[in-house]
């Protein structure tokens, strides 16, 4: 299974994300935002957390216009898998690959702590190793994690079982306590919590490792 991890100026979770995929057994390629092509035969494109372009304009707004964007959109359009974590989730909403927006946290403070999540669906390659309703401990670190969408989008996400994770105790004001969502073909996942920061016991918890293992397992068989 081949994974590509994109780096923007200001990304700071790109290496951790590459390590998490590598530990799961993936063949990991690093891609610079000014590149215009993804590695040949890539299965999963991963957009990491951080502060791309200093979070100027809106988090993820400038990164979404990067030269690599066209290749990421084309990958998603042909049914390729895309994972966006934290700033990566923000980038994917700015690219239009996921609906809604990540607004400033309701409390206007940067939140950096490990939170309890509920797995809202196991019906995706990313969440298939979890059981629906399972509680997992995963860190968050953001100031713009307040998921917001209009009523129609929320109803569709709920009706189509596209909410991947919810917060057990909503830390940031997200509508429906949403922590992560899936695209309509279930192959693009955006989530604010950082599974790559809970991917091995030395991190203080390894609940995120199953996400990378599940992607690896599913795509290795495909
Ligand atoms: N850890 C991150 O990816 C930070 C995301 C984003 N820049 C925010 O603070 O909201």
From TrEMBL:
Q: Which UniProt keywords apply?
A: ATP-binding, Cytoplasm, Glutamine amidotransferase, Hydrolase, Ligase, Nucleotide-binding, Purine biosynthesis
**Localization in the cell:** Cytoplasm
Catalytic reactions on record: L-glutamine + H2O = L-glutamate + NH4(+); N(2)-formyl-N(1)-(5-phospho-beta-D-ribosyl)glycinamide + L-glutamine + ATP + H2O = 2-formamido-N(1)-(5-O-phospho-beta-D-ribosyl)acetamidine + L-glutamate + ADP + phosphate + H(+)
Primary location class: cytoplasm
Pathway assignment reads:
Purine metabolism; IMP biosynthesis via de novo pathway; 5-amino-1-(5-phospho-D-ribosyl)imidazole from N(2)-formyl-N(1)-(5-phospho-D-ribosyl)glycinamide: step 1/2
Transmembrane parts of this sequence: none
The entry's cellular-component GO terms read: cytoplasm
**A molecular-function term among this protein's GO annotations:** glutaminase activity
Q: Which NCBIfam families does the record match to this protein?
A: FGAM_synth_I (TIGR01737), PRK03619.1 (NF002957)
User: What is the annotated quaternary arrangement, including any partners?
Assistant: Part of the FGAM synthase complex composed of 1 PurL, 1 PurQ and 2 PurS subunits.
Q: Which PANTHER family match?
A: PHOSPHORIBOSYLFORMYLGLYCINAMIDINE SYNTHASE SUBUNIT PURQ
The job of this chain, per UniProt, is described as: Part of the phosphoribosylformylglycinamidine synthase complex involved in the purines biosynthetic pathway. Catalyzes the ATP-dependent conversion of formylglycinamide ribonucleotide (FGAR) and glutamine to yield formylglycinamidine ribonucleotide (FGAM) and glutamate. The FGAM synthase complex is composed of three subunits. PurQ produces an ammonia molecule by converting glutamine to glutamate. PurL transfers the ammonia molecule to FGAR to form FGAM in an ATP-dependent manner.
Q: What is this protein called?
A: Phosphoribosylformylglycinamidine synthase subunit PurQ
């Amino acid at each position: 299974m081949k994974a590509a991890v994109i780096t923007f100026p200001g990304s700071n979770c790109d290496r951790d994300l590459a390590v998490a995929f590598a530990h799961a057994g993936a063949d990991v390629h690093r891609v610079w935002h000014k590149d215009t092509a993804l590695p040949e035969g890539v299965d999963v494109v991963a957009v990491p957390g951080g502060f791309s372009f200093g979070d100027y304009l809106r988090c993820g707004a400038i990164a979404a216009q990067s030269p690599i964007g066209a290749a990421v959109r084309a990958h998603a359009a042909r049914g390729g898998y895309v994972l966006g974590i934290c700033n990566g989730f923000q980038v994917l909403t700015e690219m239009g690959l996921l609906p809604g927006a990540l607004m400033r946290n309701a409390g206007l403070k940067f939140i950096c702590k490990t939170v309890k999540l509920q797995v809202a669906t196991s019906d995706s390659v990313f969440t298939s190793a979890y059981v629906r309703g399972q509680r997992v401990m995963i860190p968050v670190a953001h100031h713009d994690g307040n998921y917001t969408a209009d009523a129609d989008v929320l109803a569709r996400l709920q009706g189509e079982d596209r909410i991947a994770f919810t917060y057990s105790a909503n830390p940031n004001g997200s509508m429906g306590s949403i922590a992560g969502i899936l695209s309509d073909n279930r192959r693009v996942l955006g989530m604010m919590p950082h599974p790559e920061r809970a991917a091995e016991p030395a991190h203080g918890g390894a609940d995120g490792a199953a996400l990378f293992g599940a992607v690896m397992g599913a795509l290795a068989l495909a």
